[in-house]
Batch of 2 targets.
Target 1
Amino acid sequence: MLCQFSFQNFKSYKNETVFDFQATSIPEFADSLLSSGKGGKLLPVGVIYGPNGGGKTNLLLALSCLISTVVKPIHDLEKNRENIVIQHRVGCTPFLFDEQSKEEPTVFEIFFRQGKNEYRYSLTLQKDEVVSESLYWKAIGAKKTGTLFERAQSEISLGPSISKAGISRSVNPKMPYLSFLAINCDIPAISEVQRWFESCIIRNYANPVVDSQILISHEETVREKIICALNDLGIDLSGYRFDEEDKQLYTQRIINDRVYELRFGDESNGTKKLIAVLPLIILALQEGRLAIIDELDAKLHPKLLKYVIGLFKNKKVNAKGAQLLFTSHDMTTMKNTVFRRDEIWFAAANEEHESEIYSLYEIRREDKERVNSTAAFDKQYLEGRYGADPYLSNMLTGGNWA
């Protein structure tokens, strides 16, 4: 489970930026929080709102860049241990609106739980080469931290738990040492970290091609869950099948005791989106994966989006500790009946075109108090009280055209 992700000097983000999945001490939706042993509770869902060009997508790209940088060498050599669902490799681009930043490295750090342990991994890249890298671990809830390895360019030191004579410390400068160890060594802690990175699901639904990229499951239990979810959402399907000969997916409906089939391409956009996204959501929930989805709300009715969010917040459905991180423009789900205040984040660019993020929980009213849990989040956002969308006030008042 993801606890925290931070990065610096990536695309529209110049300064250090921290996204947190660690739950704050607020009472709402307490029964939806994820827990593991003695560690603090984590959020099952995080959503990022904000204007176009504010940095929503770039935040997800930063996380995707770190994940794909680690996973790609492993996948290329077919050494992966998990079924990988990552759209593509994301390149590392620094902040370009500053003469100094574009010559400086990009820094990533991620803190997550896997099994009974917590891991903190950091990676610094510059022009596709590794400047520094480190991996630390501790038991969940423990105070003592152990070192697995530390790297400063070509100099690598191993922690006592993995220091063995046969482990090479010579690695391509463009390859993370974590990837190198995962490919070449059988070290339990490294394998555990590798599995977490490989388990992350990444999808960008701003790209229309993704709607036609469908994860087909031949397991009957998974098929039944997909059909059940579609039926719950008012889409009356009885089944589906994939024709290997013409490489075509067909949906099935029973009308007057007879099965009728329809080509996937002939379904409505909303139905196609659901059929594309539900297998990924079910995979995440079944295996406790992190799903990172840009523009999840694209082509989805707000009720359907609320349904998907609710799956992750239902402890009976989400028994394995899956998490959903997504961007959205949909205001109808920005409500206290859907989200906790610490699950709602905003991304916006300042006058220097630098993106910044902050959670609704962090915002203070004029009286210095936090936004109330019973507030109309969507209404206050549209009124500009949260400061994430400076264009909305212009549109509502006529702006420069008035």
Note: The mean pLDDT is 88.
Target 2
Amino acid sequence: MNAKQLLGAVSAMIIRIALAAVIIVAVFRLAVYAYDFGYQVFADIPVSEGEGRTVSVVVSEGQSSREFAKLLEQKGLIKDANAFYIYERLSDYKDLLQPGVYDLSTSMKAEEMLEIVCHVEGETEESDGD
């Protein structure tokens, strides 16, 4: 084997190692992102502990769940609109947003917020007493 062939073989090996390293790093970062995203969706952790900050939110007629999630993120009520949107799609509150003005807090979990904004009128505890 001459020097030119040896140099070519070494270069090819370096390129393969570098490519393998890039793939390993990319897969690792994707796995970490997927875990963090899943944790945000299923752990349902509020933005702040304690009393939090109360913010008024307006749900418009025909507003989509994705638009509502983006609004909550803009107002600082949630950390990730995409995680909230996925949580809503997987919950019992799917497609039940009710138009109105709501006071939500940064100390609320996603489920608590959805419970408030998806309240269907006519389902009161008073009607259970009959």
Note: The beta strands are 54-59, 100-105.
